[in-house]
């Protein structure tokens, strides 16, 4: 299948400052791709390059098999910018109906149905919308024409938790229909439950692309074991992936990086009466990509 997005050596400098450098990336049809990084890491620069809002310093990017400057390609894209400017006296519903006509028509009732799902009040003039309601209007305009490719930049900003959950349900429906999503965020928790793959960008460079299942497997677990009798500490020393080990009588506490296989096999030599394991802390593995103190060029990053 032809990739929905294909970037090769994609680079953007703002003068001497780096926005993005040597990005090689493919996003496949029907997947939700989470694009993660702290604010200022290069996520928005990547999206602007994909949409041909800005031009690369070097490298190439194609969207839906062509350049996104082409009108026919743009009509197949739904886009929510990170900063959505909605001003004026025009009511939100009138604005959305106008956009629907510009895009060739939206099915009857589609705008209202999306507004109901997101609990959006479309009778308010756009200039008086709260931040959360502006975000809802932005989501409606991105989803309403059922685009083949959705590009969402920090989509849950300003949304309350219940609306966030409904939004994630909408994303799953998009994937089930065979369409594709790029979701940019600095919050790991909001993408891990729906993404198929995650790209992590740091200081303008893509540092990792992982399947979510692989990322979870690498994540940190905290484990506590209790036995029916005291166990020797040396039995648990030096186990692969085990750190922060504390053995006190009949209890063992430790942290596991990755698979717990070695710990489980060792524990099975004794009689286990209780085992407690915290959910994998994906936030820690995510933040680990930003802990390289040997990198001194982070300050060059701007977007």
From TrEMBL:
InterPro entries: AAA+_ATPase (IPR003593), ABC_transporter-like_ATP-bd (IPR003439), ABC_transporter-like_CS (IPR017871), ABC_transporter_ATP-binding (IPR050763), P-loop_NTPase (IPR027417). Residues 5-228 form the ABC transporter domain. SMART domains: AAA. Coiled coil: none annotated. It comes from the Bacteria. This is ABC transporter ATP-binding protein. Its main location: membrane. It holds the Pfam family ABC_tran. The keyword Transmembrane does not apply. Transmembrane segments: none annotated.
């Amino acid at each position: 299948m032809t990739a929905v997005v294909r970037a090769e050596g994609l680079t953007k400098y703002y003068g001497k400052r780096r926005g993005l450098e040597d990005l090689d990336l493919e996003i496949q049809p029907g997947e939700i791709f989470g694009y993660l990084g702290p604010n200022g890491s290069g996520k928005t620069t990547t999206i602007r390059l994909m949409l041909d809002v800005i031009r690369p310093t070097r490298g190439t990017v194609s969207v839906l098999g062509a350049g996104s400057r082409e009108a026919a390609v743009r009509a197949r894209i739904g886009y929510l910018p990170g900063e959505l400017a909605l001003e004026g006296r025009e009511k939100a519903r009138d604005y959305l109906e106008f956009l629907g006509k510009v895009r060739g028509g939206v099915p009857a009732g589609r705008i209202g149905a999306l507004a109901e799902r997101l609990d959006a009040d479309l009778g308010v003039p756009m200039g008086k919308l709260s931040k959360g309601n502006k975000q809802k209007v932005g989501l409606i305009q991105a989803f309403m024409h059922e685009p083949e490719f959705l590009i969402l930049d920090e989509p849950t900003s300003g949304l309350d938790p219940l609306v966030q959950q409904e939004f994630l349900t909408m994303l799953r429906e998009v994937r089930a229909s065979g369409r594709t999503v790029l979701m940019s965020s600095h919050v790991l928790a909001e993408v891990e439950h729906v993404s198929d793959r995650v790209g992590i960008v740091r200081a303008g460079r893509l540092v990792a692309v992982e399947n979510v299942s692989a990322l979870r497997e690498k994540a940190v677990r905290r484990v506590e074991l209790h036995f029916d009798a005291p166990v020797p500490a040396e039995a648990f020393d030096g186990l692969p992936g085990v750190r922060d080990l504390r053995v006190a009588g009949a209890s063992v506490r430790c942290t596991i990086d990755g698979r717990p296989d070695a710990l489980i096999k060792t524990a099975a030599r004794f009689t286990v009466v209780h085992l407690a394991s915290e959910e994998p802390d994906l936030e820690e593995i995510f933040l680990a990509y930003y802990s390289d103190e040997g990198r001194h060029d982070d300050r060059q990053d701007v977007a």
